[in-house]
Amino acid sequence: MERELYTARLARKDCISEQAQCYHFEFVLDQLERFPFTAGQFVSAVANDANGKQQTRAYSLASAAHGNRFDLCVNRVEEGFFSNHLADLPDLPIGATIQVHGPHGHFILQDPVTDSILVATGTGVAPMRGYTQWLFPADGPDRSNGKDIWLVYGTRYESDIYYQEEFEALARRKPNFHYLPTLSRAQESWTGLRGYVQDHVARIVEERAARLGLPLPQPAPDPSIPRNELRFDICAYICGLNEMVASTRERLSAFGWHRKQIVFERYD
Ligand SMILES: Cc1cc2nc3c(=O)[nH]c(=O)nc-3n(C[C@H](O)[C@H](O)[C@H](O)COP(=O)(O)OP(=O)(O)OC[C@H]3O[C@@H](n4cnc5c(N)ncnc54)[C@H](O)[C@@H]3O)c2cc1C
């Protein structure tokens, strides 16, 4: 079946890291009044390459649904077609367009919201920004139900901590939002966390279990409970390149975490 293609007009483009060549984009769908989606989903962007061949790539929505607009966060991939096509969209005059279909995907928060560890590297932060906008709207009721939400964000350098000020401001506003950026190649002057996301995720799980008096590894669920009725009080949402996603899943599985507690999206 042909999917409906929408024309998305570029309304804003900011380079948010020169070093990583990462861009924040804001698009408007002028033909729609509303573009409904669930935070964490993606759009498929479609364009013809230099040989006239149609190319399609997925890009996570980097915002929660708001009217007929959506945000993306994309970094240039060396020799890649689509990421460079987007990064080269002319920002002045505003008005360049792209074609998209969607929303698609199942990388969404469990309902009801549980304690959640959001784990991202690089542009994998895009759906996490969508989640946090939905959980903690600036102009509406809080949807976090007081659950603890950790965002563990890994990158190499301080210059590549995308949306840092936004997340820091949110952490100041919401005591149950814990923002943990960690650098794998930090300069000496960096006073924050160092190392890989997996290690910080493991520490959060261990400290939480100790604080709540829960056993680790976590006992397996009662086998008589059907899978769709299983309920957990904490979940992890992991997004980024496969290597990080795989090793974070492995660490959580070693704590006895059930597959249903670990939701992930791989970009490669
Ligand atoms: C569900 C989903 C959501 C995604 N969301 C985003 C997003 O929000 N932001 C974003 O920047 N990308 C995202 N991606 C990746 C995106 O779809 C493209 O793969 C990426 O932009 C590269 O496309 P390209 O045409 O430039 O490179 P291609 O010509 O397709 O690939 C060039 C090479 O780079 C490798 N590669 C692919 N992606 C990456 C990457 N991110 N970093 C390093 N190497 C890579 C490929 O394996 C390939 O070998 C997402 C992917 C999926 C599956």
Q: Which keywords apply here?
A:
12 strands, 6-stranded antiparallel β-sheet, alpha/beta, 5 helices, globular, binds flavin-adenine dinucleotide, 268 residues
Overall description:
The chain is of the alpha/beta class and 268 residues long. It has helices at 82-87, 125-135, 164-173, 197-212, 242-254; strands at 6-17, 22-28, 42-48, 54-60, 69-75, 97-104, 115-121, 149-155, 177-183, 193-194, 234-240, 262-266. Strands 4-3-6-1-2-5 form a six-stranded antiparallel sheet. Helix 4 (197-212) runs parallel beside helix 5 (242-254). The longest helix has 16 residues, at 197-212. It starts with 5 loop residues before the first strand and ends with a strand. The model has no long low-confidence stretch (mean pLDDT 96). It binds flavin-adenine dinucleotide.
What layout of secondary structure does this protein have?
Elements: E1 6-17, E2 22-28, E3 42-48, E4 54-60, E5 69-75, H1 82-87, E6 97-104, E7 115-121, H2 125-135, E8 149-155, H3 164-173, E9 177-183, E10 193-194, H4 197-212, E11 234-240, H5 242-254, E12 262-266
Helix pairs in contact: 4-5
Helix-strand makeup class? alpha/beta
User: Order of strands side by side in the largest beta sheet?
Assistant: 4-3-6-1-2-5
Strand fraction equals: 25-35%
Radius of gyration: 19 Å
Task: Give, in order, the helices and strands.
Answer: EEEEEHEEHEHEEHEHE
Number of strands: 12
